[in-house]
Design a protein that fits this description.
Blueprint (H helix, E strand, L loop, with lengths): L7 E3 L5 H14 L3 H15 L3 E3 L5 E2 L1 H8 L3 H9 L6 E2 L6 E4 H27 L5
Antiparallel strand pairs: 1-2, 3-5, 4-5
Helix pairs in contact: 1-2, 3-4
């Protein structure tokens, strides 16, 4: 990742299977467990359709957050206004920035909420309700 890059998006390509095999071999030889786990997460992300690589304490703009979440910037602004996504102001500026770790926490919360809704719907259907 270049020092100026906010996100490095890794998309699968024709050589991905070969690259995954090579990365897996390298990961198996790593002595640091945290690094080994990070490489394995990257491999899994590449194999499942792409991965985003960033440091958790990196700061992103609302537009970049919107791209990460696959929503509009206006929706991110609404989430910030509602307090659902934490933010801070750039030093000596009115511009807001969001930590990548806060985006990940929001996305995990959103996925858990969607899973609960799906489970509730399935319970209603299993109970015999028509839809």
């Amino acid at each position: 990742m270049t020092p100026t890059a906010r996100f490095q998006i890794v998309h699968p390509t024709r050589g991905s299977e070969h690259d995954s095999t090579l990365l897996r071999a390298v990961a198996d030889k790593l002595t640091d467990e945290t690094t080994r786990d990070a490489v394995r997460v990257l491999i899994a992300g590449m194999e499942s359709g792409g991965a985003v690589v960033s440091r958790l304490n990196d700061l992103v703009t609302p537009q970049e957050a919107a791209e990460f979440l696959s929503v509009s910037r206006q929706y991110v602004d609404k989430l910030i206004a509602e307090g659902r996504i934490q933010f801070e102001y750039k030093p000596a500026s009115k511009h807001r920035v969001i930590r990548v770790s806060d985006l990940i926490a929001f996305e995990q919360s959103r996925q858990q909420g969607n899973a609960r809704i799906g489970a509730a719907i399935n319970e209603v259907i299993d109970a015999g309700a028509e839809y």
